[in-house]
Each structure stands twice: as C-alpha cells, then as structure tokens.
Amino acid sequence: MRDRRRFLILLSGLLALPLVPAGAADRLPVFDTHLHYSERPWQGYPPARVAGILEAAGVPRALVSSTPDDQTLRLHALDPARFVAELSPYRGRIRWRNWTEDAGTPAYLRGRIRLVDYRGIGEFHLNKLAEAGTPVVRDVVALAAEHDLWLHIHATAAAIRRVKKLFPKARILWAHAGWTDAVSEVARLMADYPDVITELSLRAGSIAPKGTINRAWRELLLRYPDRFTVGSDPYTAKRAANYAGLIDAHRVWLAQLPEATARRIAYGNAVRLFGDGGLAAFRK
Ligand SMILES: [Zn+2]
How far is the CA of 12 from the centre of ligand 1 (A)? Predict the structure, then answer.
C-alpha cells in the first residue's frame, strides 16, 4: 500500500497534479467529544451500524450521550473502548427546556451513576443565566464533583462565567464554544478560566468559512493548543446521515495548523480527559 501511495505521489508530481488525498491510514484520527445517539435522529441505526459509521469516518473513540440514556448504554455495551458514556439528565418530558426545574433529576442521575463508568454529565443546556443557580443544577454539580465527572455544558460564555463563579471547581467541557459567542468572547472566557476545556462541535463553519481558517480562531487555537477538542453533534437525522462529513469539516481546518497542534485538538486533549481506551490509533 505504501509503495502504491509513494508511486501515486511521484506520479502526481511528474504530471503536476494535486497531491493525491491521504488514504485512510494517513488520515488524522478524531476523538469525537460530542456524539449523541438519541432515539429519533438515529432510528434505524443499530449500535453495530453506528460503530461502523465511526470506523469509516476515522473516529476510534467518542464521548456519547443520548435521550434517553439507555441508548448510550447500548453503544457502550457493544464497544466500551470506542464509546465513552456520558450521563444525560434528559428523558421523557424532561428536556433541555425544563430540566433545571425538575426536582426529580438529581435522584434520577444518582440512580444511574454507577450503571457504567460514566465520564461526564451532559450534554445539558443552561438557557438563562439564572438557571446556573437552581437547586437542581447545584445538586448536579455536586454529583459530578463526587464522582469526578466532567460537566458538558451548552451555554453562552456569560452562563459559563456564572457557573464558575458559583462553583469555581466545576470541571467544564464547554459545548460548541458557546455556539453563538464571538471568537473574542471565547478568548476572554478561556483566559479568565484556565481550566475550562472548549469543544468545537458546530463550529467548523465559523473557524474556517469557505474552507480557510479564520485568523482570530487560528491565533486562539495556537494560544491554547491543550484546551480544545472537536465533536460532531449529530442531533438531527440529517446530521446523523452526514456523520463522516461533520468530522471531515473539522479535518479541513485542522490540516491548516501545525501537525502537533492538530493532533492534540483532534484527539490528544480528549485522550488526556477521557483516556485512550487502550487503542493503538492514538499512539502517535
Ligand atoms: Zn449542544
């Protein structure tokens, strides 16, 4: 295979053709830190098929959550090295809109927390600043601390600041870098809270509009190479069907960074947080 690739590179050079695309063996492995396997978008995808989709996309390991949580356990049971379980508070009518007001949520989470080796609680949403201080959220933050778990939070930079003010020791994986926050706002938050890890699902388009990496984003990624991870966030059927495309969109901008930095962001930082599952794919 190597000889064939070398031959093609040589040939493309001779013919002045663009370099042949890297084969699967050369592709940057990605640790997806924002996988969902919720019932609706993934209807018709049994666990083995999902594992096959990740394999084909060059994703040896992923942090997965779902509504309901049993879906996550199905993936984890199939392949615990590939699927790192994260416990979602969402189930039935308890969803992103109302979970912080649901008094039953802490007991629900406590009842499940020992089912498998969960590594985080989330992804959960904080829709308003005030939600950061509700008794339910206080309990959930305490539960995470008790079990040494990450809190995977979808919220604006302002809401993350509120959480850190109330709970300075909370370990936060910040979903989508706030999604709508400007890169300058992301930079300020990361400077003020050096232990916040920022996850970049849904952000490939703002990092590299039209495929070229944005200057402010590039500076920020180079300033904090140890504090970013990438993710897919397949929360709709359309995104689930385009899983490999979501991962490849990150590879476009990762390829424009120094290789060591790209590797940290693609998988190295996530491995530091969640382990490598004993997989050889991450040993570079
Ligand atoms: Zn989200």
Answer: 42
CA of 263 to the centre of ligand 1 (A): 24
- Cα(233) to ligand 1 centroid in Å equals 7
259 Cα: distance to centroid of ligand 1 (angstroms): 28
Ligand 1 centre from 98 Cα, in Å? 15
Round to the nearest angstrom and report the end-to-end CA distance of the chain. Answer: 20
- Is the pLDDT reported for residue 86 higher than 50? yes
85 within 8 A of 277, measured Cβ to Cβ:
no
Cα separation, 98 vs 95, in Å, equals 6
pTM reported for the whole predicted model: 0.91
* Domains in the chain: boundaries: 30-277
Q: What confidence score (pLDDT) does residue 4 get?
A: 53
Confidence of residue 3 (pLDDT cuts 50, 70, 90): low
30-277 belongs to CATH 3.40.50.720: no
Q: Which of residues 7 and 212 earns the better pLDDT score? A: 212
123 CA distance to ligand 1 middle (Å): 7
Please state the separation of Cα 15 from the chain's center in Å.
40
